[in-house]
Amino acid sequence: MQFMQLVRKEILAEWRNPSQLGGLFSFLAGVCFLCYFFSGDVHPAQWNLLFWIVYLFLCFFASARMYEEDNIRYRIYTSQLVRPLMLFSAKLGYLWGLLLLLSGVLLTLLGALLPVPGTGGLAWLVLLALVSAGFACLGCFTSLLSSYGQSRQMLVIVISLPLCFPLLGSAYAASLELLTGGEAWLTKLIPVLAIDLLALAMATILLPLSWKA
Amino acid sequence: MFLKKLWWKLLGAALILIVLNRGLLTPLKHGIVDLSPTRSQAGATAIFEVFAYNSHYDRDPGSVRAYLRPHRPASPHREGDLLLAASTVDVRSATHLRLKFDLPAFLPDPQKLAAFTLIVDSPGDGPAVLPGKLIIGQDSIQVEEGIRAWTSRGSPEFSEWRKHWFPYRNILVETIRNTFFHVSLWFAMFLLLALSVYYSFRYLRQPLVDFDLRAFALVRTAMLFGLLGCLTGSLWARYTWETWWTTDIKLNMAALTLLIYLAYWVLRLSIEDPDRRRRISAAYNAFALATVIPLIFVLPRLTDSLHPGSGGNPAIGADDMDNALRMIFYPSVVGFMLLGLWMASLLYRVDRVEIRLDEGENIF
Predict the structure, then answer these.
(1) How far A195 CA lies from chain B's nearest CA (Å)?
(2) Would you call A140 an interface residue with chain B, using a CB distance cutoff of 8 Å?
(3) How far is B272 from chain A (nearest CA, A)?
(4) Do B288 and A163 touch (CB under 8 A)?
(5) Contacts of residue A148 in chain B, CB cutoff 8 Å?
(6) What's the pLDDT score for residue B44?
(7) Residues 6+ apart with CB under 8 A from A89
């Protein structure tokens, strides 16, 4: 119940400040158009690379805002009302949904502007759901850590970029398998799932320890 | 009492000195660098020029012998028997031979072309092998006739290896010594990172400044070792793969590991409040190691790599590494680990003194 209320709070906060979400969608549309304008006919491997690079930037922009409003005074107040882990779970759930939405739009738009076979279907949905879960976890955790530092936005990118690579690499391999019509895409999802679980477990263990001041 | 605290440092320094001495000064066993020509025809009299490394053929020219053997015999149980001795061995210099073989009309192989291994045996140097470089063709195939012609009359006795010399490997040659530095530095780096995570966890459970200082000192030393591992790897790649850097997955994942810990450093610098800095960087450090594990140990195994242990390349398992190398490799791993711990302990002590000076304490 509390979880749903906190997710609702995130959605309401987003709704009351639509310029940020609008900015994300504008960026997405603009980059897709640029890819279409400059690329012409693309090979599935190039399409795959473009997709994941744009996705990575979307992740950074989306996750950098997660603890933006959380200045120290507000954090002390919040932590008295809800458990930090619950707040983190709500932010994680919201970011997961947001990333899933953004990646779905990206897939549709990039697939329409630069058509390549194999972009769609349940397999892509499963892949995007798993990858978004992992990125949401990494993004939320690094956003929380960098919210304590100076120049937060840049810090989120600096500390999360190298951490994202294992997940990005596994996702790239799995989606390339889908695009080239390979049969082993399900096997290649196993590392994605493993990294998701590892990131989630580490965040769950470390969050209560890092929260205390 | 004094030695009780010092023994591991002395052991580390002694091991490093032994590794530097034996690892750099032990010679390589003799090896065959090149063979010319590399193609011949069954039934012909073939003359081959052979160039060797670290050989002393001119010391006892009459005792140098050479043999040809099928690289992949048709029937494996006959491998030891199928051997053709050179009819003439002409020693041109310490490292140059001219060999004459009277090749039988048929090969012990069901293919028209078959690969053969050259073995050169010299009493002073021991045997040297050039596997599969020579290709011999045949016009018609009669495997049984071939086996009869290639079966040696009595098995030859090869000279004794120089057991403590390092093996000669084509492409690697003298750079094989880098195993003691490049690989050991990475192993030591992982130990230091694991220990730093241990101290980070201890700090998160019990926030004593000492734990954080130890973790940070260990990370800095691990980063130095990682950087040296990258540099020695790059140098090795230049000599063996002819490039300073490649798209090899293990290489790039190792570079990413360094980036992760560079980000750790940036995070520490960006938080002003010391308590918060320690807590947040400890959490990041623990999280980072969880990411490094798939980066180094999982992802490279899912794809081909030029590195040992991936893509069918040998690693350091029981059958992959020469015993002479092992004698130096294991001490070098332990030596670099102890050296790393020593360096980290010095960094930790410097940091601790700085904190005490900042607090206005008279440390003298």
Answers:
(1) 8
(2) no
(3) 7
(4) yes
(5) 271, 273, 276, 280
(6) 87
(7) A3, A6
- CB A68, CB A148: distance < 8 Å: no
> pLDDT tens digits, residue range A175-200?
988 888 877 788 888 888 988 898 89
Give the Cβ contact number of residue A22 at 10 Å: 10
Nearest-by-Cβ selection for B290 from A145, A173, A202 = A202
Which residue among B276, B283, B293 places its CB closest to the CB of A206? B283
Q: Where are the domains of chain B?
A: 31-150, 173-358
Percent of chain B past pLDDT 70, that is, above it, reads: 91
ipTM tops the 0.90 cut: no
The CATH number of domain B31-150, selected from 3.40.47.10, 3.40.50.720, 2.60.40.10, 1.20.58.480: 2.60.40.10
String of DSSP letters for A123-177: HHHHHHHHHHHHHHHHHHHHHHHHTTSSSHHHHHHHHHHHHHHHHHHHHHHHHHH
Give B231-260 as a DSSP string.
HHHHHHHHHHTSSS----HHHHHHHHHHHH
Q: CA of B203, closest CA in chain A: separation in Å?
A: 10
